[in-house]
Amino acid sequence: MGKQIWKPGNMLYPLPAVMVSTGDTKGNTNILTIAWTGTVCTNPAMAYISVRPERYSYGMLRETGEFVINLTTEKLAWAADYCGVRSGRDVDKWKETGLHRGKAETLDFAPLIRESPVNLECRVTEVKELGSHHMFLAEVKAVHADEAYLDKNGRLELNHAGLLVYSHGEYLAAGKKLGTFGYSVKKKAPDQKKTVQKKKASAHKKRLEHKKASHRKAT
Amino acid sequence: MGKQIWKPGNMLYPLPAVMVSTGDTKGNTNILTIAWTGTVCTNPAMAYISVRPERYSYGMLRETGEFVINLTTEKLAWAADYCGVRSGRDVDKWKETGLHRGKAETLDFAPLIRESPVNLECRVTEVKELGSHHMFLAEVKAVHADEAYLDKNGRLELNHAGLLVYSHGEYLAAGKKLGTFGYSVKKKAPDQKKTVQKKKASAHKKRLEHKKASHRKAT
Question: What ipTM was predicted for this assembly?
Fold first, then answer.
């Protein structure tokens, strides 16, 4: 089969579906769910969220320049969806979801969500008004990690948390592990090395051959 | 258990691990794998990639202002990892991975990767030099979708493609479907409605209660 060419659109997946918590100077707080988010720089650690100006949290973000990115898990899927489709103008999302506010370490107004395995405290450095969405670029100021997911050496085993994946309108669980960063070129003990490397490369080529063959058949 | 507070870091997951294809005006092309990527605006459709200036593709991106985001799948995990750890200065990644160049519709220099289920042609609008990484903001100019994943009505069933997830140093398969966007407030037929809504909310509360109880026990 071939490919269809479509007009410009948003088809970059899979993505996280994070709950972003915000607050204003009067003590109001809210949660909104966002998939238009990501890491933009390793050092300094920076992330972004893109938000429609119509959203209830938008004014809080503009007023305080603060937000917390709260990672979501399978257990939090219902709450994540709810906070993505309901507005804080109409409902108290904390009450409706049963989630609890926690105190941020470096922020003055935005709370964190205690039930999330990881919270990233963010301070806005710049807002870019791109179109339907305004992008809030931010520096990560502190990270909170749930001790339930630390191994005995204190290393975070984040993939034991059952992180939530958002892809093309659907929430998915994270599936089985396929490899670790760098596995395609990993050095093994000298006697293993050649066999393992060759096996991996050859398995990969076989998968591609298979795909090519079915492409040829169809086109 | 409680939480540990860490210094600023990059802990926003799960993410895509896309292969980005680039080209220069002399006909050289390359593939680099990137997780620091995402959608930044729905309308106009905009995406970004963040790239270290040391990377071989960086000069091509600066020279032409073009790149293609190629989505990756389980079958492409080996190639994605390989293109993330090897440099185009040292190896011909097309040859080493067996991937094939395709012609972009709206770009002059950057090719697409034929084996990817979806390709997003991107044209850079701005480069932000943030620190270790420079962020390339771009408009999506065209989307290519593999007909193998279109249903009989021509709708893309992207989650049948087996998309690759990158999370905290590991490649994961996408797992089972947990819900569809809006499922937490979805209206059912009148007789079903209350029961279903209540069931969903109550299942969610039970999961949170369970989590709270185990937190209480440990802290």
Answer: 0.90
